[in-house]
Amino acid sequence: MVDRTARGDGPMTGAVVLGVGGSLPGRVVTNDDLATRLDTSDEWIRSRTGIGARRWVEPGTATSDLAVDAGARALRSAGVSTVDAVIVATTTPDRLCPAVAPEVAARLGLVGTPAHDVAAVCTGFLYGLANGVGLIASGAARTVLLIAAETFSTILDPQDRGTAVIFGDGAGAVVLGAAGPGAPGAVGPCVLGSDGIGADLIQIPAGGSRQRSSGLAAAPGEHYFKMRGKEVFRQAVERMAEVSLDALARAGLTVGDIDHLAPHQANMRICAAVAHRLGVPEDRVLANLDEVGNTAAASIPVLLAQAAADGRVKAGDQVLAVAFGGGLTWGAVTLAWPDAVASFGTFVPAGS
Known about the structure:
Blueprint: E1 14-25, E2 28-30, H1 31-35, H2 42-49, E3 53-55, H3 63-78, E4 85-89, H4 101-107, E5 115-118, H5 124-138, E6 143-151, H6 161-164, E7 169-179, E8 191-194, E9 202-203, H7 209-213, E10 226-227, H8 229-251, E11 260-263, H9 268-278, H10 289-292, H11 299-309, E12 318-325, E13 329-336, E14 343-347
């Protein structure tokens, strides 16, 4: 096996991205497809969200399936076959218990490797990134496979126009390696935040201990994902702009140093508002929302894998990634893009 762990002149206290992978289901669901059963239209959806289509898994496909595909792609991109830890960020694990990460690790041939889940909804990838960087900085690992995977289509109320048109399925992954100071592909300081006072703005009301311990049956529809969109919009714009500036300051960078803003693909208006507040020109804002919708925790790594694969992001580019999600949670990080060939493609179910 080739040792792709980054090496610098100093101690291994930082992390770099060694490889990138992304995977989307093959099933394309257009706005017109949804308009046949919802009181909506392609024009209504596009004007409010910027979404034209999204990818949904076929029946029988689980989050672990997408995670394994994206993880395998990232490992190939990095040129490694083993890692010291596996992290999976997801809101839609295969089961409420156990975590999905150990199964994903086993299916990737990493039996015995420590593996755990991270649950921070749409900020999950950045929380997972901070976990991975922390493992490397502490010396507990030299390489970490971080996967963010979602099958949000499985938790959406098919009759809720406010959520059914927004979310899609997908998975993205990166391999992190230990690095010395100034190594190419470096991950900057991960800046995170939360505010549990807003926990009810983005939630699945039923299925957890609070509903189960009440002794009451869940009300109709409470097993589906719920979101109070107007309140979330305001919070998302404010928090994403603030945490972006914090991440830039901690990395010793300014907005002018950024080649690409990679915002969580929540909706077109949020992304545009954040870019405007930061003063980032439109041509520096990465987007794939029109084609894949909001893939929650997978949003940022899917966006970066796709942008790297099609040449929009190149080695040495400085990227600012920022997200906001349920919890409420938010985070931002700067990335010096690595010299790695991203692997991005369509998930093909076994037996197809």
